[in-house]
Design a protein that fits this description.
two-stranded antiparallel sheet; 296 residues; single chain; Arc Repressor Mutant, subunit A; 46% helix; seven-stranded mixed sheet; alpha/beta; D-Maltodextrin-Binding Protein, domain 2
């Protein structure tokens, strides 16, 4: 059994004529007849009957016809998804915390407006977990901090951001001139495996210091939890500039700007190397890149 048999059956029922079905499929009428006979032999039942109003389905043929239409539609969707044409189907995104909260919602909304036949779901965790999901095909694409270099993955930087120091509103900053002046303050940090924590530690090392000099009084598992702790007066911290600006704008915290603390990091788009040309994946990457070209 092959798709040509199914397509011949579908076309025959649509046009109700062996001759017209053959013409539209660019084959001979005997070829259509043979394909219908092959289907009837396979299912061991009569599928069509000739009437004065043209070819009609038998009762058994009606059941099989409905299923064949579903099969052909699924096949058409698969070809569109993997071989070209407008992106369709479902895209499963894995994202680390900051992209999931501050970058992707608007991107997804605008992409959905352009490609309404694409549906989304999102899984959120730390960058390491997200990349592992991608390698194990639990997600289609990943938006994270810097991923590991591996031939399995196709990776591109898509947007950069700064890290910002935030403090409680009542924090006195007049005597704070350099980053080292903050070592006497109490710190609330993200957990050790987070991208934000890693970027902070690298920056402190580049300044010739160590995190051991910091008074770390708490480690929390999300950006919002850290901001809430700072707002409550438990200490100061470093977070994404996206998150810092939103919290400062709402009057929850203040941002401390220091000349010797300039931390920029990239967020990356990743997919499996073998899948980078799938229409929905390549369209999503192009859309992100175009969005940030306009933004910048």
């Amino acid at each position: 059994m092959n798709l040509n048999h199914l397509k011949a059956f579908e076309k025959l029922i649509q046009v109700k004529s062996f001759q017209e079905a053959a013409r539209q499929l660019s084959v001979s009428q005997p070829a259509i007849t043979l394909r219908i006979q092959a289907l009837e032999e396979h299912f061991k039942t009569k599928l069509v009957k000739r009437t004065g109003e043209g070819v009609q389905l038998t009762s058994q043929g009606e059941v099989i016809y409905r299923r064949i239409k579903e099969i052909l539609k699924l096949w058409e969707d698969l070809e569109a998804q993997f071989l070209g044409g407008e992106p369709v189907g479902k895209l499963v995104i894995g994202a680390s915390t900051i992209p999931s909260e501050y970058i992707l919602p608007k991107i997804i909304k605008n992409f959905k407006s352009t490609y309404p036949d694409v549906d989304f779901s999102m899984k959120i965790s730390g960058s390491k977990d997200v990349v592992d999901w991608l390698k194990h095909r639990s997600v289609d694409v990943a938006i994270t901090g810097e991923p590991p270099i591996t031939p399995l993955l196709y990776t591109k930087p898509i947007v950069s951001e700064n890290l910002s120091i935030i403090a409680p509103i009542e924090f006195i900053e007049e005597d704070i001139k350099q980053f080292r002046d903050l070592f006497d303050a109490e710190w609330i940090l993200r957990e050790k495996n987070s991208d934000t924590r890693s970027s902070l530690e690298k920056t402190i090392e580049s300044l010739g210091f160590s995190t051991e000099l910091m008074k770390i009084v708490g480690e929390l598992g999300s950006t919002e939890a850290v901001i809430a702790a700072v707002e409550a007066g438990l200490g100061i911290t470093v977070v994404s500039s996206y998150a810092a600006e939103r919290a400062a704008k709402s009057g929850r915290v203040k941002i401390i700007t220091l000349k010797d603390f300039q931390v920029t990091r990239n967020f990356y788009f990743s997919c499996l190397e073998e899948n980078k040309n799938f229409p929905v994946i390549s369209a999503f990457l192009s859309f992100i890149e175009d969005s940030y070209k306009v933004h910048n």
